[in-house]
From TrEMBL:
GO molecular function: hydrolase activity
InterPro entries to which the protein is assigned, alphabetical: HAD-like_sf, HAD-SF_hydro_IA, HAD_sf, S-2-haloacid_dehalogenase
Source superkingdom: Bacteria
Record's keyword terms, sorted: Hydrolase, Plasmid
Pfam families documented for this protein: Hydrolase_like
Keyword Transcription found: no
Hydrolase is among the record's keywords: yes
PANTHER family xref list: HALOACID DEHALOGENASE, TYPE II (AFU_ORTHOLOGUE AFUA_2G07750)-RELATED (PTHR43316:SF3), HYDROLASE, HALOACID DELAHOGENASE-RELATED (PTHR43316)
Name of the protein in its database record: Putative HAD superfamily hydrolase
């Protein structure tokens, strides 16, 4: 059941679906690998996890020594022993990468009913090979928006504005994601509609300020099939 769903027929219709990656369409490690990276580096810094995320996930590491690049970027002394642990972390993330059971059926149905479908993700590019192998081999997105390509991370308006760069109207876009801060508020602030995916079934209402309670927030769901229900109601009304 879709919770707190709002519908206003006077608003722009939904023609484009933009899905988050981690914990929305796919999953891997139990916690953010950036936290494990900080543990590996064993450094104390004034940088918050969000600062480190902004530094690492907005840059494409293409050299043969990405760990050394990271150390330079974060101004941390390089250690070859730590590099081995970093490689193990990346390998664990790749091996653990899986799609949720509802992901492919929902994406394919969205395409069948005439919607364009995009993937929007804060991603360090080390995991890109397995995303391509496991995900893109089974579904071809109309557009893919990765933070390391855009140079900005969600919830930045700059990130979501990249959707408009391919001729898609944000007012006609529905963003589906699990993060209230990055996906939902980020999308809403940029001018898109949004549905909050809470796979744990939580029904608690967040206490946040406008524009969260605007017509752009279409409620919370517990699986991706419910996002399609919202879109199909929108197309019928």
């Amino acid at each position: 059941m879709v919770k707190d769903m709002k519908n206003d027929s006077n608003k722009a219709r939904i023609y484009h679906l933009a899905f988050d990656l981690w914990n929305t369409t796919a999953y891997s490690l139990e916690r953010d690998p950036l936290i494990d990276l900080i543990d590996i580096l064993r450094f104390s810094s004034s940088l918050e996890i969000a600062d480190i995320q902004a530094l690492i996930q907005t840059r494409e590491f293409i050299s043969s020594r990405p760990f050394a690049e990271i150390c330079d970027l974060l101004e941390v002394p390089y250690c070859y022993k730590h590099e081995g642990k970093f490689r193990d972390l990346i390998e664990s993330e790749r091996k653990g990468f899986k799609l949720f059971q509802d992901t492919l059926p929902v994406l394919k149905t969205a395409r069948e009913i005439g919607l364009t479908v995009s993937l929007v993700s804060n991603l360090w590019n080390f995991c890109l090979p397995v995303v391509q192998e496991v995900f893109f081999s089974q579904f071809q997105f109309d557009h893919v928006f990765f933070s390391f390509d855009i140079g900005s991370i969600k919830p930045s308006i700059t990130f979501f504005k990249a959707i408009e760069s391919v001729g898609i109207s944000l007012s006609e876009t529905l963003v589906v994601g699990d993060s209230l801060h990055s996906d939902i508020l980020g999308a809403i602030n940029a001018g898109s509609k949004a549905i909050w995916l809470k796979r744990d079934g939580s029904c608690s209402s967040p206490v946040v300020s406008e524009p969260f309670y605007s017509d752009r927030y279409l409620g919370s769901i517990t699986n991706l099939y419910q996002a399609l229900e919202v879109v199909q109601k929108d197309l019928i009304n």
